[in-house]
Amino acid sequence: xxxxxxxxxxxxxxxxxxxxxGxxxxxxSAQLADVAGVFAPASAxxxxxxxxxxxxxxxxxxxxxxxxSEQYLxxxxxxxxxxxxxxxxxxxxxxxxxxxxxxxxxxxxxxxPFHVLNDHGMLDLEPPAHTRIRRLVAKAFTPRTVDRLRxxxxxxxxxxVRGLVADGGGDLLARVAEPLPVAVIAQMLGIPEGDRxxxxxxxxxxxxxxELNPSQETAARAVRASVEFxxxxxxxxxxxxxxxxxGDDLITALIAAHExxxxxxxxxxxxxxxxxxxxxxxxxxxxxxxxWYALFRHPEQLAALRAEPERLLPTAVEELLRYDTPLxxxxxxxxxxxEVGGTVIPRGSEVALLFGSANRDxxxxxxxxxxxxxxxDNPHISFSAGxxxxxxxxxxxxxxAASLGALLRRAPALRLAxxxxxxxxxxxxxxxxxxxxx
Length: 438
Description:
By secondary structure, this protein is an alpha+beta fold. The protein has helices at 44-48, 51-60, 77-84, 99-102, 112-119, 129-140, 143-166, 172-177, 179-189, 199-207, 216-242, 250-256, 266-296, 299-307, 309-323, 355-358, 393-410, and strands at residues 2-3, 9-10, 23-24, 30-31, 64-66, 71-74, 89-90, 169-171, 258-259, 262-263, 329-334, 338-340, 343-345, 350-354, 415-416, 435-437. The longest helix is centred in the middle third of the chain and has 31 residues, at 266-296. It has a 5-stranded mixed beta sheet. A 3-stranded antiparallel beta sheet has the order 8-16-15. Strands 1-2 form a two-stranded antiparallel ribbon. It starts with a strand and ends with a strand.
C-alpha cells in the first residue's frame, strides 16, 4: 500500500485507511469495520460480563457501526460525556423533522399507546418542550423534598433489612432492593399502598421497549402496560383534582405547578408521573443488586467498608454506580451531521452511548477495572449529563446509601448464598435474583 500525506496507509482504490483498520470514503467518513462479533447484546455471556468487549471497542476506535440495530456505538468516556451535552443530538427528532423527512418510518399504529405515554415525558423531549416541563417538575421535585423523605427512606430500609435478617436471608432483590425504591417513589407521589404492587410489573413491561430490537411480544406487553398505567394515573389525577389539591404529595404539586400560567397538560402530567415511577425505581433496584454482587466478588473491599462505613459510604455509592452501572446504553438521534474521531455520522442516524464502557475508560479513571470504594476522583456518567441529567439522582443516592448502610449495620455477616444469573436485558442490566445468607 502507498502512504498518504497524513501518514495513513492508502489502499489500491485510493481510499485512505485509518489507524484502526477502517477505510475512509470520499466524504471523509470512515468505513467502519463490523463489530457484531465483539458487541453482542443478545448473548447471555456478553450480558453477564460486557466489560472485556468494551475494552476491545475502546482500543479499536472512538466510533463503530453496529449493523443489527443500525446504531453508531460510542465507547469512550470523553466522547460520551461530550455528546450527552451536544445539542446536535436529541432524544427525539420530532420537534424539528417529520418521520419521512428524517428518513425514519413512523412507529407501527398498534404501538401508539406506548409512544403517547413515553414521548410526552421529559426524558424523550427536547427544548423548548423539555425545558418547560423540567422547570415545572423542578418546582415540585426539590432538594427539600428529598431531605424531607430521608427519615422515611432510612426507616424503611432498616425495617426491610430487619425482616431479611430475621429470616436468615433470602432474595436481596425481592426483599430489599425492589420494595425500598418502589415504596419511596410511591410515597412521594402519593400512590395508595394497596396499589403499589402494580407499579413494578407495569414498569418492567414498559422498560422492555428500551432494549435493542425489542420483540413483538415485548412490544405487546409494553403497549398493554402503557394502557393500564395511563388509565390508572388518569383516575388518580382526577381524584386529586376532586379533592381540591390539598395534599402534600408530588402528583398534587405537579398539578399545581405553573409558571406564567404555563401548566402541564394532562398527558404531560400522566407521562411525567409514569417516568418518575419507572425511572424512580428501575435503576435503583438494579444498582443495589449489581453493587452487592460486586462487593461479594471483592471481599477485601467489603471488609474495608464494614470496618469504616461512615468514611467510605459516600464514595462507595458512587463507585458501585460506576463499576457496574444499571443503565448500559443511552440512545440519541443525530439531528445535524457530527464528526467523531474522523467519522462523519450523518443526520438521521442514531448513536448508542455506552455508559458501561465509558465508566471503565482508563483515560478517565485510574485502574478502571478495579473496585475501589475510596475512589475520590469519580466522574462517572451513570446519571447521564447535560439537560437530561437524572432529576432523581439525589433521591437515588439517598436510597442506595440507606439500604447499603442498613445492611452493613444489621447484617454484618451477609454473604452470597448462590451464584446469580443476569436477566437477558442489556440496556437496563441487572440480576434475576440475589440469594444471600445472614
